Task: inverse folding
């Protein structure tokens, strides 16, 4: 996302903003399930977070998963 932001600042291309918008919608659950824990209408339930597992606590909000499993 940082690369796209910088590219848009350099040339002002509106198409870059559209790509960034689609990426954000996908991460926040436009397909029905959010890819970020604790975000969106239907966030993921049990992200794999080794530190939380070893301590016996819930995973923190804000973890981005890498696709649906």
Result:
């Amino acid at each position: 996302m940082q690369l796209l932001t910088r590219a848009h600042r350099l040339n002002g291309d509106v198409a870059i903003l559209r790509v960034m918008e689609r990426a954000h919608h996908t991460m926040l659950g436009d397909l029905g399930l959010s890819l970020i824990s604790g975000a969106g209408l239907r966030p993921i339930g049990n992200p794999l977070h080794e530190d939380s597992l070893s301590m016996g606590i819930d995973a923190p909000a804000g973890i981005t998963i890498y696709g649906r499993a």
About this structure: The radius of gyration is 15 Å. Residues 15 and 41 are 27 Å apart (CA to CA). The chain has one domain: 2-55.
